Amino acid sequence: MGFQKVAEIKEFEKTEKKLVEVGDKKILLTKVDGAYYAVSNKCPHMGGSLFKGSLEDGVITCPRHGAKYDAKTGKGLGKPKILFIEFKMENNRSYPVKVEDGKILIDIDS
Ligand code: FES
Q: What residue ranges line ligand 1, CB within 6 angstroms?
């Protein structure tokens, strides 16, 4: 299907993240250093909603067990932990984003 509109730039005037749905996928759209990025909202560890976590300095922290992901690439930066047990770090899925005429588009097929 290629790029599809999911949001508008003006929606990011007061926030740096937004949860969008494309087909059956939930995607976390973020604004980091003035650019826009998209990753799967579903934490690769146990499916926590990354939208409900925090976004600081381009790092998303899962609210469930604290795994950290690069908002730009989805790369895993910090392992999930339950009590003192650390789990395997996995990378999150990221999607290409482009901006046209104030609209934010993402491509979930590539
Ligand atoms: S579900 Fe995200 S860290 Fe466990």
A: 43, 45-48, 62, 64-67, 80
Residue numbers of the domain that contains 31: 3-107
Please state the rounded mean pLDDT for residues 10-38: 96
Cα of 110 to ligand 1 centre, how many Å? Answer: 25
Query: What's this model's pTM, rounded to 2 decimal places?
Result: 0.94
Q: pLDDT by residue (tens digit) across 62-92?
A: 999 999 999 999 999 999 999 989 999 999 9
Strand spans (E) along the chain: 3-8, 17-22, 25-32, 35-40, 54-56, 59-61, 68-70, 76-78, 81-82, 85-86, 94-95, 97-100, 103-107
Overall domain count for the chain? 1
CATH number of the domain where residue 82 is located: 2.102.10.10
